[in-house]
Amino acid sequence: MNEVIKTILNHRSIRNYRSEAVSKEALLYILQAAQMAPSSINGQQMSIIVVEDEARKARLSECSGNQIYINQAPVFLVFCADFYRAKIAAELNGTDFKIPNSLEATLIGSIDVGLAMANAITAAESLGLGTVPIGGIRNQPSEVIKELNFPEYVFPLCGLVIGHPLDNSEIKPRLSQDTVVFNEQYNPDLKAKIEDYDHLMSNYMLKRTNGESNRNWSSMIAKSYEHGTKRDIRKAMKEQNFDNN
Ligand SMILES: Cc1cc2nc3c(=O)[nH]c(=O)nc-3n(C[C@H](O)[C@H](O)[C@H](O)COP(=O)(O)O)c2cc1C
Q1: Which end of the chain has fewer surrounding CB within 10 Å, N or C?
Q2: 74 near 45, Cβ under 8 Å?
Q3: What distance in Å separates the CA atoms of residue 80 and residue 64, rounded to the nearest whole number?
Q4: Taking all residues of the chain, what is their mean pLDDT, rounded to a whole number?
C-alpha cells in the first residue's frame, strides 16, 4: 500500500487540538493541494478564506454552533462556492451571465468545493495534522458572508478546522463496501446490511463514549433527517444572487 492510500485509509476527524501553530509551509501545501483538485470546466468555482485571527475564528465558531475546536485549532478554512470570477469572465467577454439562476450552479460549486476540501484534508493528514469539516458554517450564512466580506455569487459551504491533534480518535467504521458500491446496477436490497452496520456502530459508539452511548447509525441518521432543516439556505443564497428556484 502506498503512502497516499495509507493516509486516506487512516482518516478520522479530530475534535481536540493543541494550540501549536500550523507552519506557513504546511498551510501553503494544503492550499495548493486544494487548488489542484479537478473543477468543472476548469471554472475553479470555489474559494477558500484562511482565517487565523483569534477574534474572527471565535465569531465564526459562534455562527457555527459554538464548535469549540474552531477556537482551539490555529487555522480555520472556509470553503465557498464561487461564481464571482465567472461573472468577471462574462463582463470581460460581454456575455450574459445566467448560470447562477439554476440549481446546476449550486451543484457545480458544491462538487468543486467537495473535491478541493478532500484534497486539503488528505494533504493536511499527510503532514501529521488533524482536520474536521464544519457544515455548521451554514447555520447562519448571512452572518458569515458579512464577516468574510463576500461579494455577490460567493456562498460559504463548509469550514475546515486544521491543527495539531491533541488526541487521535479511533477510525470510524464505514458501511460495508457492498452497501455503497454496486456492480453495474444499483441494488436496493440494503436493509439487512444497514442492520449489520448498526450493530458495528453501536459497539463503536460504546467504546468511543466509554459506555455512555450505544447509538447506532440508522437512529442517528433518522433523527438528523426527521424534521428537514432549520437552515434557510435558499434565502441566503438569493441574497448572494444565486437564484436557484
Ligand atoms: C460536509 C460535512 C460537514 C460536517 N460538519 C461537521 C460539523 O459541523 N461538526 C463536526 O464536528 N463534524 C462535522 N463533520 C464531520 C463528520 O461528522 C465526520 O466526517 C463523520 O462523522 C465521519 O467521521 P470521520 O471523519 O472521523 O471518519 C462534517 C463532515 C462533512 C463531510
Answers
A1: N
A2: no
A3: 15
A4: 96
Q: What is the pLDDT of residues 126-155, one digit of tens each?
A: 999 999 999 999 999 999 999 999 999 999
pLDDT tens digits along 158-213? 999 999 999 888 999 999 999 999 999 999 999 999 999 999 999 999 999 999 99
CA distances in angstroms from 197 to 116, 119, 210, 217, 225, listed in the order given: 29, 27, 20, 7, 18
Grid cell for residue 136: 455548521
Ligand 1 probe mutation, 9, 113, 134, most atoms within 8 A of CB: 134
Give the three cell numbers for residue 187.
441494488
Indicate whether residue 13 lines ligand 1 (CB < 6 A): yes
Alpha helices in the chain (DSSP H): 3-9, 24-35, 54-63, 68-72, 84-93, 103-126, 141-147, 177-180, 191-208, 217-224, 233-239
Q: Nearest residue CA, atom 25 of ligand 1?
A: 13
Q: Grid coordinates standing for 175?
A: 458501511
